[in-house]
Amino acid sequence: MSKPVIVQSDNTLLLEVNNPDFEHARDEISRFAELEKSPEHIHTYRITPLSLWNAASMGLSLEEVLSSLKQHSRYELPELVINTIREQFQRYGILKLIKQDDRLILTSKKPLILSEIMAHKTVKPFLGDRITEVSVIVKPELRGHIKQSLIKLGFPVEDLAGYADGDSCDIRLREIARRGQQFTVREYQQSAINAFYRGGGLEGGSGVIVLPCGSGKTIVGIGIMALLKTETLILVTNTVAIRQWKEELLDKTWLTEETIGEYSGEKKEIRSITIATYHILTYRREKRGEFVHFNLFMMKNWGLIIYDEVHLLPAPVFRFTSEIQSKRRLGLTATLVREDGLETDVFSLIGPKKFDMPWKTLEKSSWIAEALCTEIRLELPESLRAHYAIASDRDKFRIASENFRKIDIIEEILKLHAGSSILIIGQYISQLKEVANRFQLPLITGSTPVHEREALYGKFNKGEINTIVVSKVANFSIDLPDANVAIQISGTFGSRQEEAQRLGRILRPKHGENRAYFYTIISSNTVEEKFAHNRQLFLTEQGYAYLIRNEETFKELCK
């Protein structure tokens, strides 16, 4: 039998989809390579320095990576690729930050490399005196800055300098949740907690946990809080997420209402456990003014900072995080993909990837719902073709996204899944209003007041309403456990993380048939089709396949 992977000397891996060993090979190589494109027959992965450093940080060895490639490669591995992998793997750990007699020290296994980086103009401002040929003093307040600078030079720093403990807070998990159900941390959640904590040693305390939406990332955060028992600042995407974190903390731990504070546009409570939005932290009265709420980072002696949806971390919060490297830092996300390419900043300032569970692995264990993904392609009507032909690229995308014929397909899907819990998700408010009016459905956008959003989500969860039209505010941190159908009618260009987040809205395990349906409606032979391919990359890497239907074949299926 022919093996499924072709390893090329430019560090790309070609993976044959129709090979019997495809799934096993995909799961192996996705641990240390990034998916670049995924047409029908051949998927292309790329081995990058960051993908290898993340693999090393999770405990994968150089021998395991090379062995995996040799096992699945159709041809002999190019010597150039072997040397690249060996060199990048060896770079992780060459430089370490340690504490020595209350001083912050940068050490190196190789004196020549230390001399090289000390001479570099971007690194010099962060360094003090050289102590020995393998160590130099680092200014303590610049711990984050030097890690950022060095990773840009191709040298990831292993930070073993430890963390301040922060003020204590008695956080204990319940065995019976406050709502009455038995509560236990799932095995994979415990593995994620242990991977971050590392027995309380210097290797633990900062890093990113990657788990699918609906698999309980919040429980992982709470489990880590219970181990550390320290005052904690939790940063989230919106006020609804604040309330959901608070509900989970009250339900799963013995913390009281008085212990948990909300820091948002509506309230400014600072307590032992404080949950704040990124939005409030990045607020400033004038465009170039100060961030008036950044003092929240210093108002208490936090022992842990949790960055929920860390892949969305705003640049100003990145910058301030570089100043607080003595705090333990936990990033939670379903995907580390950032469309701005700042994954290296997540690595250096929050920490390396500590745990990553493939989505399909959890699906097979029924911890998340089985998801069937379908892309439905419609022709752009003649009335829009002329306008589309002369439009700018951005306008072309909007014209294709707002194709009015999508409403007919929405109607077919609503009939097909009558009685299901359905989310209709889109990018453009005018389009969403049109859909909501046509089908007499409630609409939630960024301008919907928080209390109104919570009321509608509550009715949806109780089954009082079964279909909601939502803008991109529903991409993140909303808990709608019974939602089992999502209809995506427009999105943010080729955003892979948005695609993952939207599928994640319907992945919580379901009673009975543990299955969810994810529909994407696009205009064929337009730029929207091209962007749809890019959006699907991350989910393809996770093992999801998109069934492609045109308008006629889909309507036939609906009969």
Summarize the structure in words.
With 559 residues, the protein is of the alpha/beta class. The protein folds into 4 domains: 5-91, no CATH class; 95-159, no CATH class; 187-357, Rossmann fold, CATH 3.40.50.300; 363-558, P-loop containing nucleotide triphosphate hydrolases (Rossmann fold, 3-Layer(aba) Sandwich). A 7-stranded parallel β-sheet has the order 12-13-11-14-15-10-16, sandwiched between helices. A 7-stranded parallel β-sheet has the order 19-20-18-21-22-17-23, with helices on both faces. The model has no long low-confidence stretch (mean pLDDT 89).
Attribute tags:
single chain, 559 residues, alpha/beta, Rossmann fold, 4 domains, 7-stranded parallel β-sheet, globular
- The CATH superfamily of the largest domain turns out to be P-loop containing nucleotide triphosphate hydrolases
Secondary structural class: alpha/beta
Note poorly predicted spans.
Answer: none
Number of domains: 4
The general outline is globular
Helix content: 25-40%
Quick gist of this model?
This protein is of the alpha/beta class and 559 residues long. It folds into four domains: 5-91, no CATH class; 95-159, no CATH class; 187-357, Rossmann fold; 363-558, P-loop containing nucleotide triphosphate hydrolases (Rossmann fold, 3-Layer(aba) Sandwich), CATH 3.40.50.
